[in-house]
Amino acid sequence: MDAENNIVQMFRNRSKTYGKRIRWREQRNGAWQKATWEENQAIVNSLIAGLDALGARRGDVIAILSNTRWEWMAADWAILGLGAATVTVYPSNTPATSAYILGNSHARYVFAENAAQFEKLASVREQLPGVEKIILFEGAETLADNPWMLSLDALRALSSRSAAEADAFAAERAAALSPDDLATLVYTSGTTGQPKGVELLHSTLTAQLNGVRSMMETIKPGMVDVLFLPLAHVFGREEHLSGHDRGLETVVVSSFDDLAPALRESHPDLLFSVPRVYEKAYAAIQARAAAGSHTQRRIFNWAVRTGRDVVQRRGKGKSVPLGLRARYRLADRLVFRKVRAALGGNVKFSITSAAPLDLSILEFFNAAGVLLLEGWGMTETSGGFTLNTVKDYRFGSIGRPFPGHQLRIAGDGEILVKGPCVTRSYHENPEATAEAIDGEGWLHTGDVGEIDADGYVYIRDRKKDLIITASGKNIAPQSVENTLKTAPCVSQVAVYGDRKPYLVALITLDSAAVKAWAKEHGIANDDVTEVYTDPRFRTYLDAGIARANKQLASYETVKYYEVLPEDFTVENDLLTPTLKIRRRRIYARYHDLYESLYQPTKAEAAY
Q1: Cα angle: 441, vertex 384, 375; to 5 degrees
Q2: Claim to verify: residue 420 and residue 486 sit in the same structural domain
Q3: What does the pLDDT look like over 257-315, one tens digit per residue?
Q4: Residue of 24, 89, 134, 405 with fewest CB within 10 Å of its CB?
Q5: What CATH number is given to the structural domain containing 557?
Q6: What phi and psi values does residue 495 have, to the nearest 5 degrees?
Q7: Among 509, 494, 504, which Cα is nearest to 588's?
């Protein structure tokens, strides 16, 4: 095998190794598009030659503004293959934020998904003097007369090089790349202020791929994964790059709404996801169980208790008694087999990252035969940094660091990390770089955590998100929120209480679960906002919140809560593109509602 001095050489080597196997497939308008490794390499070669003919050069910055799709991956490999750097832009970003990222990164060209994204950029064109051309993945025919636009097909046809000449040119470009060359700029989604551009080199991305390779030996070439995460985010990008490195067949899903049928149809071996996906799946499973007959609900609850008993015993290294094993086999046949079928029936294990997942949900899916392995990382660490593995895992932990990487806990509990996959700096922002990376090279992550005797790391919360109550109690809001989200019908939770005598919360509801409850109780109204004002439903919800509160320390319990009429979403700007709540924006938008929960008559609700 040729040397791999950079990730582009890795790309070319794997394409040669797996040749005529399927690299990716994606369903469009009911029909599957697909490409072998050889065909994918040829597509990328033509794009590299086209970019060169367009005027792009090594060291340029070229942006991608699109939802997840096969063209995104091809454009990324072409940019990297030319020797340029990819800057990723979320398609949900506002025109102003998109303009800031493109301007701050000095992007010369932009790959954009469609006419809607083109029009977004056109609306702020005066702020983009450095952008020379927009290359559209689709919809170019509606903008044929616009000289600022070029279609993807036109770009591929721009060069006069033959297929063999384009491949030779791509090989030459790959050989010229250095490990210290900039590979990508990924702008942190952030909750306040302008995003910061994290500089990731070929060497840092290579270290990331090596880390995944060493921790995930059970991933084998030819396994099927489903890529639906946003590729603008470092986790989705890591899956895309690692999938190529490990020889996977990737099923690309461009819309979250298409995920469930894609899982059932493609039968993936692996699933990489954020916790919100499992939370919603768990809520849907609970809703279906609640809508069943009395006997069906009893069977479901019995199966869950049985499964968790088995999981907890195994987690403590205890043997599973013969009788319990027999009950578990029955529970699997009656309940858990259906859970696996909803995920395609073939998932060997699943990686979850980007936010904590409640322990009860981890235990449930593991009982169902779907091993969820939590990992942790940041944009600044090129993706993952710690990971549980199939052979060694601890539920509730984020695993152990990649080989050759270091992690320690500072005096105030903050997690500090160091290693070859850590960024060198923020783009043109020395102040932010100095604030995040100290003189000894330790990256200050902002996460608060601890390490157990066996080296497993546990995250308790974000340093700046910690709530300190009026009585001086330090509370990690994410832990409280994850516990409350296990209550039936609850979708999202945002707790509040800094410098207050107790915690309060705003919660949102899972519409499918609410409708299932309404149907069970003979309520015909499908309007969720009407159902949740029904006294019977409020009593049901109160009971669920009370049960969740019992799992918390007294000072962590939520004394009062209010239900919001809409969920937190990316569209209403209360979730990040990776489905984490934007706490400060929620606090600002609903400040008066939060404060109304601290009425004089409620001030007696002490710990």
Answers
A1: 120
A2: no
A3: 899 999 999 999 999 998 888 888 888 888 888 888 899 999 999 999 999 999 888 87
A4: 405
A5: 3.30.300.30
A6: -85, 160
A7: 494
